[in-house]
Design brief:
It is a single chain. This protein is of the alpha/beta class. The protein folds into two domains: 1-30; 33-246, Rossmann fold (3-Layer(aba) Sandwich). Helix content is 30%, strand content 29%. The strands form three sheets. Strands 2-1-3-4-13-12-11-8-9 form a nine-stranded mixed β-sheet. A two-stranded antiparallel ribbon has the order 5-10. A hairpin with a 2-residue loop joins strand 6 (140-142) and strand 7. The radius of gyration is 20 Å and the shape is globular.
Length: 250
């Protein structure tokens, strides 16, 4: 007992020193990141999805569902959130909602687009420029080039490669395995910063990327179909990091 007591005191001193460090104080002093999560137009495991966000910590989350979600893009409602996370799959969007969306990005509001939200707003070309990609719900021809309908496949186990380990969104992540849905035959703009990739044959090679739209930071993450993804520690870390990076938080 005589030897254990000094060791305990030393351990307590180290922990107190860590808690008092500038980094720890800065983290404690940060107000919660206010996140608006938009869903609708696609079924998902609602309870597990919300439990995942609750487990991230440091966030206050508001959930909005279509057809009423666009009201949160208006200037008065947008004062209540810092980051917009899209987990919807929705097509109708009014001219007012388009203007509000672009106005929030022009203000520097952060945007994280996840999974099936890549297929939003097929008839609004600006959305493709915002997120840096185009998913094709129907075959089409673009600039004289035929484009097949984009593909998806449930319940695929595959390896994810961290393409840019030095980016703030992927910092601390290593290559990981996941059970998820894959997407293929979609276009990704060449000016994005690719963060995650895969060699899985049923998936497009680029799984996640970062970009900007004016002053706004934008991240897209293909992963996230159901609880297999929600419960994956690497998925959670990426989503938490992305939310903070687009909001310019540590």
């Amino acid at each position: 007992m005589k030897t254990i007591r000094p060791l305990c005191l030393l351990a307590m001193a180290c922990l107190l020193g860590l808690a008092a460090s500038p980094w720890a104080r800065a983290a404690q002093d940060q107000p919660p990141l206010r996140v608006l999560v938009v869903a609708g137009g696609h079924d998902y495991e609602t309870n597990q999805f919300r439990q995942m966000f609750a487990a991230l910590g440091g966030l206050t989350v508001t959930y909005a569902t279509h057809p009423d979600a666009h009201a949160w893009l208006a200037a008065d409602r947008a004062a209540a959130w810092d980051v917009l996370v899209l987990y919807d799959m929705w097509q109708p969007i009014s001219d007012q909602a388009k203007a509000d969306f672009l106005a929030r990005l022009a203000e520097g509001k952060g945007l994280v687009v996840t999974h099936h939200a890549i297929a939003n707003y097929q008839k609004w070309p600006e959305y493709e420029r915002i997120i840096g990609a185009k998913y094709y719900l129907e075959p089409t021809v673009r600039d004289g080039v035929p484009k097949a309908r984009s593909q998806w496949l449930h319940d695929v186990k595959f390896r994810v490669h961290v393409a840019d380990p030095n980016h703030p969104v992927t910092r601390g992540l290593a290559d990981f395995d996941i059970h998820d849905e894959t997407y293929n035959l979609f276009d990704v703009h060449p000016d994005v910063t690719v963060l995650l990739t895969t060699t899985e044959a049923t998936s497009g090679p680029k799984l996640a990327w970062a970009k900007t739209h004016g002053p706004a930071r934008v991240v897209y993450l293909q992963l996230g179909h159901d609880h297999f993804a929600y419960e994956n520690p690497a998925y959670r870390q990426f989503l938490g990091n992305a939310s903070r990076w687009v909001a310019r938080r540590p």
